[in-house]
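Appendix B, example 12.
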Amino acid sequence: MDFADLSAPQLASLSRDIPIVIPIAALEQHGQHLPVFTDSLLLGEVVRRVRERLAQEVLFVPLLWLGNSDHHLDFQGTLSAPPRTYLDVLSGMAENLIQQGFRRLVFLNGHGGNDVPGRQALFEVRQRHRQRKDLLLLLATYWSSGPGPSGVPSGVGPTLHQKEMGHACEWETSMILRLAPHLVGNYQGFEPIPPGNPFLPASRAWITRDRTGPGHIGWPQLASVEKGELLFKAFSDDVVALLQRVTRWDGHSWEG
C-alpha cells in the first residue's frame, strides 16, 4: 500500500504492526555518465518491484530524495542536507510515525552517505523510547540487505567484476542501463578506479575528491543491461525477504 494514497481515516484503521518502509536516497553527482538522480531512480525501482509483491502486507512512504551528500559537494549537481540536519529529518520522521502508533519502521536506504546519520538517528530515537519493547527500528541499505558474501547478491557474483557497490560503477551503471538507458552517457572508455578501503587500518575522514577525480569509483565500462536486470532481481528478492521477516517479527528479539 502507498501511504500517500490513503486518507487519514484509512491510515488510522491499519494495524499498528504493519511494517512501514521509508525509502531514503539522494540527488548528487554520479560521474561523467550517469544522471544526478541515480540513487533515487535505482531505489525507486527496487521499491516498485518489492511493492508489487507485498502490496497488501507493507505500507510504503514516498521516497525521500534529499540525502546527506556533503562529501560530493565539490562536484556540480549535488544537493545535500548536512549530516546533522539530515539526522534530525530522519529522527523526526520516525517520531511522527511512532506518535501515530506504528511500531515497525524500516528506513530503506539507497545512498551510502545516508548510512551513518541514518543509524545514528535511529539509535537516538531508540534511546528516547528505551522503555518500549514493542518497537522495531531498522535501517537497511538495499544492496547489502541479503545474505550474499561481501555484499554480492546471491546468484549474481559470477557475472560481476566488482564484489562491492561503488559509485557510478559497474553495478549502478548496469542498473541505469536496464532502467533508463537514454540517461546514460558514454561509459565504455573510462579508466577503472578501484574502491580501496578508507576505513582500514583506521577510518579516515574523507571527501569524494580524495578517492576519485572524475567522480566514479569502480569499473563502469563493464556494465551491461543484463547485469542490471540480475542486480535488480537479486536486490528486490533480498528486500522482500527482509520485509517478510519484519512481518513475522514476534515483538521480542530481532537477532533470534
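DSSP finds six helices and four strands in the chain. Strands lie at 20-24, 59-60, 104-109, 136-141.
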